Amino acid sequence: MPLLEIRRVTRRFGDFTAVDDVSFAVEPGEFFTLLGPSGCGKTTLLRMIAGFDLPDAGQILLDGRDLADTPAERRPVHTVFQNFALFPHLSVARNVAFPLRMAGLGEGEVKRRTADALDMVHLGELAEHYPHEISGGQKQRVALARGLVNRPRLLLLDEPLGALDLKLREEMQLELIKLQREVGITFVFVTHAQNEALALSHRIAVMNAGRVEQLDEPSRIYGFPVNRFVADFIGNCNLLEAEVRAVEADGLRLSVAGLGEVRAPAAEGCQTGERGLLALRPEQVQVAAEADPAWANRFPGQVRDFLYVGDVTTYQVRLDNGYTLQALLPNAAPGRARFHETGDRVMVGWSAQAGHYVREA
Predict the structure, then answer these.
(1) Regions of the chain with pLDDT less than 50
(2) Rg (CA), the chain
(3) Alpha helix segments (H runs only) across 23-165
(4) Which of 3.40.50.1820, 3.20.20.80, 3.30.70.100, 3.40.50.300 is the CATH number of 4-228?
(5) What's the confidence (pLDDT) of residue 15?
(6) Threshold 0.85, pTM exceeds
(7) Could you say which architecture CATH assigns to the domain 236-359?
(8) Which residues contact 152 (CB under 8 A, 6 or more apart)?
(9) How far apart are CA 78 and CA 226, in angstroms?
C-alpha cells in the first residue's frame, strides 16, 4: 500500500491553474522528487501535502486516509523550508529540540535525539549558538536537523540544500540517503536542480505548467525522455529534428535536415513518415580528427568552443550544415595527445544505438 497518494489534485489561484489534475503514489521508504522549473507547481503541491494549502479538487491520502480534514499541525509530516524558519531567540539546540518538547518527550530523550540530529548535520559544536551567529548554510542544516529529529512518517523538503556550498551539499546528499536507509523515513523532495534529483531520488516526477510530464526512475528519465520538454530540461541534450524514413528490426533510419540519414535505436510504436526528435546526450557523441569506422553516424565540423572542467571537456562543434552539437569527452581518454582547439576541423560521430527517438505529440 502506498504511503502517500495524490489523486487528481488541482489547485487554482483565480484564472491560473498551479496544479492541474496531478496523480501519483509514493511508497514507504522512498526518496521521491518533484523536479521542475520555477512556477511549475511543485511547491504548491508540497504545501498541500503539508496542509498549508488545500486542493480545489482531488484527494491527498496518507496511509489510505484522506487528509482533507486534518490540519497541518496534526499531520505526521514535517517540512524543511527554503527560508530556514528558525526561532531567533532560541539556540541551535533548542531550535532542533522544539518539535520534541512540543510532543512532550522527557528531557533526557530530548537531549539525546537533539545531539544525534546535530551530529548528523555536523553542527554539534554550534549547539549553543544562536541563528544570528551562524552562516546561511549552517542555518539550513539546523532546519534540516529540526525536520528529522522526531523521525516523521513523511519529510517534505523544499530545496533544503540550496544554501550550502558544493562540497557540503554533496556531503549532505550522502547523509540524507544514509539516514533514510537507517530509519526508513519517506522523503518528498522539491528541487529545480536536475543533477541533485538524479543523484538522490528513487523516482522523479518531472513537472511543467502544473502537470507531471514524466514519472520514472532517474536513469529512465535521463535516458528515455518522453517528450521535448523532459529531454531539454534534464541535463544537456542535443535535439535533432527528424523524420522517420524506415522502421527496421535493428533500429530506425531517420532523415535529419542538412545531415541526411541518421541511424537510431528502435522506438516502440514508431511509424514511417512521422516526425519527431533524436535526443542525443553529449557523452554519446565522439569527437576526433578522423572518423572512427565504428561510428554509424559521422559528420564533419569545426570546434566552435570548449569548456574544460577537470575530468571532462565539453566541446561545441558546428557541423557543416549549421547544426551545433555538444560532445562530452573524458580528459583521461587513452591515446589523446592534446585537446581539440577552437577552430580545429574535426569529425563527430555516434553509434546506431546512441540517442533516443522522441515522438512529437
Answers:
(1) 337
(2) 25
(3) 42-50, 92-102, 107-120, 136-148
(4) 3.40.50.300
(5) 95
(6) yes
(7) Beta Barrel (2.40)
(8) 76, 77, 78, 185
(9) 33
